[in-house]
Amino acid sequence: MTATLPAWAERLKGRYLAGEASMFMLHGNTRDLCRWQSQGGGVEYLALVPFLVEMFSHSKDIVLTYDVSQGVQFPDKKMRKRCLMAVNARRAIEGELPVDDFPSSPAHVLPMLERLVTDRSQKVAVVLDFFETIVPMSDLSYMGDADKANLVAMQRWASDPGLLGSDNLVVLTTEHLSDVHRRVVSSAQLSTLRIALPEQTERETFIGSCDHAGVEAEMDDAVLAKITAGLTLTQIAALFRRARQSGEPIQFSTVSARKKEIIERECHGLVEFVAPGHDFSHVGGMEGLKLDLMRVANAIKSGQTNRVPMGIMFVGPMGTGKTYVAEAFAAESGLTCLKFKNFRERWVGSTEGNLEKILDVVEGLGHVLLIIDEADRSMGNSADGDGGTTSRVIARLKEFMSDTSHRGRVVMMMMTNRPDKLDADLKRPGRFDLKIPFFFPADAETRTAILGASARKNRVEMDEGASLGMVAEKTEGYASAELELVVLAASALASDDERVKVTAEDLARAVSDVIPSRDTRMLDYMEMLAVFESSSRRMLPPRYAEMETHEVQSALDALRAQLGRRVL
């Protein structure tokens, strides 16, 4: 029986046998278990390095692994002895004394291994694990001599025709390509292969192989495989181990909570799960906007991926309800909702690495709404002197957002009140197909609806004589957030008097006390930007719907002139 290999291993094997490459970089889910089926038909799950050793041992005379902690390791003593003989034979030819063991530091072991892998008389496989600790991403001016020596050695390996012309193989492993120096990653003879998070069929097969003794679950293996999307096989095994030790059954709620905990930890606090506590019934007004978004939500739930935009952008002044509506959309669509936190760091390569971690999780989860709030701050193009970090982050996001395989599975939702600070190519159709403008409520009827929704959301009870319509008449120019503030202020006044229900007097006092934003010129500018970015004329209020492009641009130019440096 022929051993079956994971998809990534088949690709590695195919490229190697075709002579395309002899040096490979494995990245992604490199700390998980791999299913190994022996030629005899037995199946076991191994960590990546032992899996590679098993895979290469059938065709290579020497297989060795190296990391900076354990040094050079071999499957058995015979192979170690065979390798030392080969190394010493080369040393003798070059007039050097023999060695009886391998050094531990990369600066000394890499030159020794280089002689081995470029020797055409050998059949060798070398696995360098945790490669980011050997050649980390760093600016050359900050690298020590040892790191520079390692970088040069690996660049030499990658460009040496002796390696490509031999029957030898080098495999480097890292979780994130961005942690490895770009000069190595960009080497022409290095082939990169991504190990993806396990798909549903892989998870179901693994769950079936787990020991179910002493473990109760309120779902069958197929359902458990479905709801563990985004988890590694190692993490799924931990669910079984925890259930067995605690005696508690595996439930939907416990899996969800555990999944949230694991993924937030794996992303090092770079994303947070958002559990929406409201839907569109709690959103006042915005009827046309809600109708458009419900069409998208229904298309997602019915699997009509061609009707789902690649990305959705909410544009408009602050306080107009962009984040609140985004969370309501998450509830209506049924998508797992993740929100970007601050993933930018000062160290070279750290920001790109953080982004890769987030995108890997999103890719593995599938059916995700990824919210980027205040995008102009995290994705803005105004960052100077950041070593090109901003441009690389935006380039990676563009690449991810343009992947049509994500349509219907991953919806990127970006919110901003300053879209003029975002890269124009980032906002184009194909990345953000739907750009929805948000405005201050234009009439008393809309403000009444928003006030009512705010009261329901915050469980504020109104006295029979309290009229939200009266409040709406007196709050022209208030943003949605400011209308909610009026409701909360009235509730606080009632609470101070130890009353449950809000009276008309409470509302009147709250209206007279709450001051709306006075920066009207900047708000006008943000509102006009929303008009400019809108992807549909029907989404615009009547006062803007008939404006031509040149009129909108003229209005923006006039506002920019008035605001001066404030819009830079």
What are its keywords?
single chain, 568 residues, six-stranded mixed sheet, 46% helix
List the topology elements:
Layout: H1 7-17, E1 23-28, E2 33-37, E3 43-47, H2 48-57, E4 62-67, E5 71-73, H3 77-93, H4 106-117, E6 124-128, H5 145-159, H6 161-164, E7 169-173, H7 182-185, E8 190-195, H8 200-209, H9 221-227, H10 233-246, H11 252-266, E9 271-273, H12 287-302, E10 311-315, H13 322-333, E11 336-340, H14 350-365, E12 368-372, H15 375-378, H16 389-401, E13 410-416, E14 434-437, H17 444-457, E15 461-462, H18 468-473, H19 480-496, E16 501-502, H20 504-513, H21 520-533, H22 542-545, H23 549-563
Parallel strand pairs: 1-7, 1-8, 4-6, 6-7, 10-13, 10-14, 11-12, 12-13, 15-16
Antiparallel strand pairs: 2-3, 4-5, 9-11
Helix pairs in contact: 3-4, 4-5, 8-9, 12-13, 14-16, 17-19, 19-20, 21-23
Alpha-carbon distance between the termini? 67 Å
The total count of helices amounts to 23
Q: Which strand-content bin applies to the residues?
A: 5-15%
Secondary-structure-based class equals alpha/beta
Strands in their spatial order, largest beta sheet: 5-4-6-7-1-8
Approximate shape: elongated
How many DSSP E strands? Answer: 16
Main sheet record: 6 strands, mixed
- Uncertain segments are none
